[in-house]
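for the writeup, i need someone to sanity check this before i put it in the appendix. the sequnce is what the collaborator sent (i think, or maybe the updated version? ugh). structure was predicted straight from it, no edits. if anything looks off just tell me and ill rerun, i have time this weekend
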Amino acid sequence: MTDRNIDLTRRKLLAGLGTVGAAGATAGLGTSAYFSDEESFEGNTLTAGELDLLVGYLSYWDQGMAGSGSVTGTQDGSGTVSGELTDVKPGDNGLLAFCPRIVDNPAYMWLCGELTSNDENGLSEPEADVDESGGDPGEGAGELAQSVEVTASYCEIGGEIGDDGFDPDDVTSSTDVWSGTLAEFLSAIASGVPLDGSGGQPGDGGFFAPGEQSCYAGTASDDSEATNPCLCLDWEVPTDVGNEIQTDSLSFDLEFHAMQCRHADGTTNPCAGECEACSFDTSASPSPEVTVQSTDASGFPQVSTFLNVDTAAGTAGDLTASDFALCEDGCAQDIGVEFTSEEKPVDFAFLLDVTGSMGGELSTMKTNIQDFIDSIEAEGIDARYALYLFGDEEETGPPAVYLKQDFTSDSTVFKNAVQATSLEEAVGYGGDTPEDNYEAILTADNDLSFRSGAQRVMVDITDAPSEEDPDQTIGGLPETRASAVSVLDDYTYIAVSPDSDAEHQKKPLASDVGGSWIEILEDLDPILDEIVTEVTTSYRVQYTTTNPATDGSTRDVAIRIEDPGAGTLHAASSYTAPGS
């Protein structure tokens, strides 16, 4: 294997393998250093090439009149690096730097960690005057982790580190990616975050989503000049922190994982650990008796899926939690199931084509919408309504989509907005036949603030096919039919359009997403019974995901139902986890 005494960002670290007891004795920071080393893919037959991880560590602290100090070293092994803070006061600060190096093949790097203690350790007399914890010596009673401010950055360490040790002046450049308290930082990385081999960050800051990060260069890289960034953690106890941290101490663990880039795409999270494998076939085709209304992750890591089961036992509410099983990305989940015989809220998004070709239909459809709203209100449904108008930007210029009325629960306000809508309003006359209907669908899904747990209903009214514009995106999705299908899986979709199965018409779109179709100019009453049934007879399947990483990833949800009359039924859905 390659010689392990390798350069770390144009300098060599002082100490060899071992612990860093000096830091623990002097500053209470870092009494041991062991780093995780993923040298193979567990359960994978990949054997070509080698992978070894070395991590250089540097620690500097400044405690004012109490002095300052530093330690440096290199760790090659497996496990965790542990840090500890004790006897710190307002104004104390320091810098931790970790410089990963990959021996031989390039690798994706991941960081994860946890707060292992945050203790009160009793109360001093000044502390007792301001600390309301009562001196509880139990775990988690301290305030130190919430008082230490941390800034994480990609950094470069320059020069030759000599006998004078290490201090912040040795950092020649840095790119901040995260800031907050130490407690918040450890919570953010608890499930693992990918580190970027180029030291970059997304446009909105933070860490890249899995699969979007760059590999860390290996020593066998074709680019002999390639260097990898270090990860710097600047920490300080602000001077405005009071006596509540006296006697407090904390400890934490950090893990670095390297996973070979060859034959991988960077999405595998080695910090996530193993999960219980799903006990049923998640690729089974969805059953027509089961309709997924929505999957709600607004309370992440808690996730709720609402569905209808159109069987005798299902509509009667006789199914129980033992009849359901749910898996997320192939991992079994512990679930709770509730039959919601009471009405749940419904959010209606109306999309209305107002281009010139709708001249003979707009007046009738406005009346039909208003009559439909009256019927919804008569049923006593907890409803809100929003209205988008759409046209054809390519022919008449922007905007292609216009929000006429944001969500309102006042049916009179909404009906007045509908009545006041005019032909070619805001979006122009159109021109050629296809309209920007896919943009309207994606815009409504991306921009409207739907209520948590509400059934989402989209009513799409047009006399024309949709136009694709794959070069333009909304919420990361190109304006295409495929994107519309992926979005509409979370809706009760109702297409009001011509009786046509031609390409980009709404009748086949409704069929593809399990929605309903009504011929344009017909009234909307036939869909009322369907909506009332879905609102009043649905199952809420709740679980706390075993993968709480805020990584912006799309998660596949598979559900199996053992129905006493209909047998084994399947359903599928998905949701997007929040980003970090």
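Residues 1-50, 123-140 have pLDDT under 50 and may be disordered. The radius of gyration is 29 Å.
thx in advance!!
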